[in-house]
Write a structure and sequence with these properties.
The chain is 6% helix and 35% strand. By secondary structure, it is mainly beta.
Length: 594
């Protein structure tokens, strides 16, 4: 096609049509040369500038919000600067050329202070965004100096009752491809009430119009979220309740992040298919340190979701009058695996599985000091529970008893320190539960750990659990049958918090566990494939399971790294002496791993 050219901003004719077709197949046809980088500086910018270089930076958020962004464009905020107001970018990227929002220059992370608006950053019906290296705060009044409500242009909500650090809204189409990395979000509180949230993904569907919208492919990494009125992260579809799995949000990951001191749960996962929560630290959720906080919440929970893996996290110090577990499985879920986590000092407890779940549960986790809550103290409406298997669910607004299929709790190690009196509870009509190979060790000599188990409309399969000392537990006969009552010989005497719960070399818990595949439904076998235990020991066979979260082979020398430092120092001294005395090299064939 003669005369057809693609032109870059400098006006140079670069490619013929045939050349474009050629590059389409070999370089996926990128328009990168048309992308524009915009620079924004509150301290040195000017809104009369073009913003296309640091020397001609834009100044205000108002000017930025009026830019029409295209795939591959970028917004760079100057380090050390602070903006008061909101960022509401216009335009979407695409899968290969997302719109980037980042920082430039030297100094402290740039701050966007939402200044009482509904959100510090609002992405409304736009998608394909990568945002990183920013700090967001938002706790000022929603009224301006003339007592008029501050409103985001083109958006109907204000910041009086709801407030956000970053909010993504889909109410006219489905959205896709978001990456948020190295973002700090703190002090998110509305003018009234507790509804302040770090990040929210909100879709609004209208069944009457057959409009169904979701937000998918979200990757969150290295976030720091603290001091929020309610949830740290909230994934919430509106108008999809009771709809089939065809309209779930899809593919969310949260990795390497710290969420602490939130008024509600650290993360609320609602109606999502394909979730990975990995290598995060949740600390102090359900906080009441600020009167604007909700003061109740687990480290996280999953609701009406499917294919979720929660692993390698630390959940600690959750507080609240109800719930407030390390991580709990709410109702209406399928295929949820909570594994390899450390749950510590959570008032509500360690394990909670509510009603109408399928093949969901906990394995190879460590619990220490969970379930300290006491009914009636500080408004608590329920005692702390190490295990809470419930039939609770809500259908059409009515609370009902809903049976689950294939609840599982196996190969966890639970340590109960002095002074705690948590319960073990299996509620009526909760359905099918597999309860195998768990270790419960109590040092709470002044309290008895009681269990309640209601057999009504339930199928319980329980075997090879270990309780020590026996006299500290008051167990239902179904739990007591086929259990062990002997010291599992956990290491305990070490400063390493995780290694405390490994088995000593002469532990009786080696290879006496139940083969889980003998009881798990055939269709769920693949989901339960085990690669390793809590301590990263590679798994060899279901036929040689230990009891507890440590599945190391009997007598392996990998235990050595967990031993007392002074013992290792002594051993090293002996070996050094022998080497010197006999003048021979000492070569170890052992490989130590943790």
């Amino acid at each position: 096609m003669p005369g057809f050219f693609i032109t870059c901003p400098l006006g140079v004719n670069l490619l013929s049509f045939r050349e474009v077709i050629f590059l389409f197949f070999f370089t996926i046809f990128s328009f990168d040369c048309l992308a524009i980088d915009y620079f924004i500086s509150q301290s040195s910018g000017n809104d009369d500038n073009t913003g296309i270089s640091p020397a001609v930076a834009i100044k205000s958020l108002t000017r930025v919000n009026n830019l029409s962004l295209s795939p591959g464009d970028a917004l760079y905020f100057h380090k050390g600067d602070t903006w008061h107001g909101y960022l509401k970018p216009l335009g979407s990227g695409n899968l290969n050329l997302p719109i980037r929002i980042d920082s430039y220059g030297e100094g402290e992370t740039p701050i966007i202070n939402g200044f009482g608006y509904h959100a510090a950053i609002l992405i409304h019906n736009e998608d394909n965004y990568h945002i990183s290296n920013l700090k967001l705060i938002n706790e000022d009044t929603h009224l301006d100096q003339n007592d008029k409500v501050k409103r985001i242009e083109g958006f109907f909500l204000d910041g009086s009752l709801e407030r956000y650090g970053l909010k993504v809204v889909a109410d006219s189409r489905s959205l896709n491809n978001f990456k948020f990395e190295n973002i700090s979000i703190q002090n998110i509180f509305p003018t009234e009430g507790h509804m302040g949230y770090g990040i929210k993904f909100e879709s609004t569907s209208d069944r009457s119009l057959d409009n169904y919208f979701v937000i998918s492919n979200v990757d969150m990494n290295q976030l720091k979220i603290s001091n929020t009125g309610h949830y740290g992260i909230w994934i919430k579809p509106l108008g999809l309740y009771g709809i089939t799995d065809n309209y779930k949000h899809y593919k969310y990951t949260l990795k390497n992040s710290k969420i602490h001191n939130t008024g509600g749960a650290g993360i609320s996962i609602v109606k999502v298919n394909d979730v990975l929560i990995e290598n995060n630290h949740f600390d102090g959720t359900g906080s009441s340190s600020d009167h604007r906080m909700y003061a109740r919440g687990s480290g996280g929970f999953v609701f009406d979701s499917k294919n979720a893996v929660i692993q390698n996290n630390i959940f600690e110090n959750a507080k609240g009058t109800l719930d407030s577990y390390g991580f709990h499985i709410d109702y209406n879920n399928e295929d949820v695996m909570v594994q390899y986590n450390l749950s510590r000092n959570n008032e509500g407890g360690f394990i909670q599985i509510l009603g109408n779940n399928i093949n969901s549960g906990y394995r190879f986790n460590i619990s220490h000091g969970d379930g300290s809550r006491i009914l009636g103290i500080n408004g608590a409406t329920q005692n702390g529970r190490l295990v809470n298997i419930s039939s609770y669910c809500i259908i059409n607004g009515i609370t009902q008893n809903c049976q689950s299929i294939g609840n599982f709790v196996y190969n966890n190690t639970i340590h109960i320190p002095v002074g705690l009196n948590p319960k073990i509870h299996f509620g009526s009509k909760s359905g099918e539960t597999f309860f195998y190979n768990n270790i419960f060790v109590s040092e709470s000599y002044s309290h008895t750990i009681n269990s309640t188990l209601n057999e009504t409309m339930n199928t319980f399969k329980m075997d090879s659990n270990l309780f020590f000392p026996q006299e500290y537990f008051q167990l239902h006969h179904l739990i007591e049958e086929n259990s062990y009552f002997i010291d599992p010989k956990l290491i305990l005497n070490t400063q390493n918090e995780k290694f405390k719960y490994r088995l000593e070399l002469d532990s009786p818990a080696y290879q006496v566990g139940k083969n889980i595949l003998e009881v798990i439904r055939d269709e769920h076998h693949t989901f339960h494939n085990i690669e390793r235990d809590f301590f990263k020991n590679q798994f060899t066979s279901f036929n040689f399971l230990n009891v507890g979260a440590d599945n190391s082979p009997t007598g392996d020398l990998f235990i050595l790294p967990a031993m007392n430092f002074f013992f290792l120092s002594f051993l090293f001294g002996v070996l050094t002496f022998l080497n010197f005395k006999y003048k021979r090299s000492f070569k170890s064939n052992s490989h130590f791993s943790v």
